[in-house]
Amino acid sequence: MLPKPLFYTIALLFSIPVFAQPDLMVQKSGNSLFVQHKVEPKETWYSLGRLYNLSPRDIAPLNNTDITKGLSIGQLVKVPLVASNFSQNDRKAADEVLVPVYYLVKEGEWMFRISTNNNKVPIEQLEKWNKLDRNHVKAGMKLIVGHLKVKRDQSALATTDYTPRKENAVTTSPKAPVAPPRETKEIVSVDTDKKQPVSNPEPAPVLKREDNAAGGGAAIDFNGGYFRRQYEDGAKSIQGAGNIFRSTSGWKDGKYYALMDNVAVGTIVLVTNRTTNRSVYAKVLGNLSDIKENAGLIIRISNAAAAELGSGESRFTAEVKY
Questions:
Q1: What's the pLDDT tens digit per position in 251-270?
Q2: How far apart are CA 148 and CA 121, in angstroms?
Q3: Which domains does the chain have, with CATH numbers?
Q4: Three-class SS state of 56
Q5: What was the pLDDT predicted at 277?
Q6: Around Cβ 41, how many Cβ atoms within 10 Å?
Q7: Confidence class for position 249, pLDDT limits 50, 70, 90
């Protein structure tokens, strides 16, 4: 039997919660703005690119490294804020979500200085985002200075609640600030296809969870997925190694997506796991990135699609028809 002090120590260790990435805080290097990301287990340059809506080749140089070198758990990575993934005018694409990026006000700073330090974002915009008059800025406040633009179907940040914590709320009255509205629009793929007509919606399949013999986790079954009816049987077929990418899409609606070279964006492909002989229908979002992790792959599918295929989160032998 364990001594009481040792027992309590072990219990305390197992009770410590695992925290997600904190609020996005802007930092500056020369004239460049960036946010810092702490690497979690299993993350790669490729997954960071999808998370922050930026090519891995655009992230590595700011960190004085290249994408051929892997990432270490706990490593701090600087992620650039550029025109393609950073908005300071509330503009975004139909398939993007705006995630607030904050600036910590320093002693002696006022709105003009904060504006100058953050791409000269208009002071009126800062007042609008933060429900704050320019004359009431104080040290220690967290002010929104822009928004990270992330893909709704590809980035976990798109579903994270980034409402400022109450103790850091920026306001001139006792009331807490009004949080930015959460996105409630229907998911639209990156090829900007038209939405499904409201008058004749696709029936939502029932989510089934069971032991996944292949992956050891929870499996789902949407009878091939949402895009099954849109598939057009083609003459082309290819076999090779497949793998996954992480996405919030598909778990509740069967909307599966894929990355594949030499196939037009928007094409519906039939993906079969040759080991389990299960198949799904996925819409192609774009090409595979030219990075080390994609060497030898013919396709990447969303992890929800992989769950229905019974392939777990590792490589599998795939056959793709389109």
A1: 889 999 999 998 888 899 99
A2: 14
A3: 27-168 (no CATH), 226-321 (2.40.40.10)
A4: helix
A5: 93
A6: 6
A7: confident
